[in-house]
Design brief:
The chain is of the alpha+beta class. It has two domains: 79 residues, Winged helix-like DNA-binding domain superfamily/Winged helix DNA-binding domain (Arc Repressor Mutant, subunit A); 43 residues, Dna Ligase, domain 1. The strands form two sheets. The protein has a three-stranded antiparallel beta sheet. The protein has a three-stranded mixed beta sheet with strand order 5-4-6, with no helix packed on it. Helix 2 packs across helix 3, helix 2 packs across helix 4 and helix 3 packs across helix 4. The protein is globular, with a radius of gyration of 17 Å.
């Protein structure tokens, strides 16, 4: 797994560091983790690391499309390594559990904007809110 992460970092022109590799692994192992959860996982892997270092790595990886940052309303930002496929998320209002949802199929008029807007859409971020099977 680390070789895959090293290659991905190099392809983006980023320096390969133990911190970046550990953050990538943490996000891969536990998708939809908050920065605090990533910090705890990384500490278990490599020992001492500052909260700011984890924030900086998460930001660099997000900006380079190696991980995806999701910011659901009322919840802390979460991170995942599933990028580039325009999938969506279902979030439980009670426990915050986040589940990947493949892109809507069939008629989805709410995802089509008026041509008069002049805006070219390249991604739609949809969040479905409700209750997971454990909380309903």
């Amino acid at each position: 797994m680390l070789e895959k992460f090293e290659k991905a970092l190099r392809e983006k022109g980023l320096q390969v560091t133990a911190q970046r590799l550990a953050v990538m692994e943490a996000v891969s192992i536990t998708p939809h983790s908050s920065s605090e959860q990533v910090l705890q996982t990384v500490k278990q892997q490599i020992g001492s690391i500052s909260k700011q270092a984890v924030y900086d790595v998460l930001e660099a990886l997000s900006k380079n499309n190696l991980i995806r940052k999701i910011q659901p309303a009322g919840f802390p930002a979460i991170y995942e390594d599933r990028v580039g496929d325009n999938h969506h998320h279902a979030i439980c209002r009670k426990c915050g559990k986040t589940t990947d949802i493949d892109c809507a199929v069939g008629s989805a008029p709410c995802l089509e904007i008026a041509k008069s807007s002049g805006f070219k859409v390249d991604e739609a971020e949809v969040v479905y809110w409700g209750h997971c099977k454990d909380c309903k």
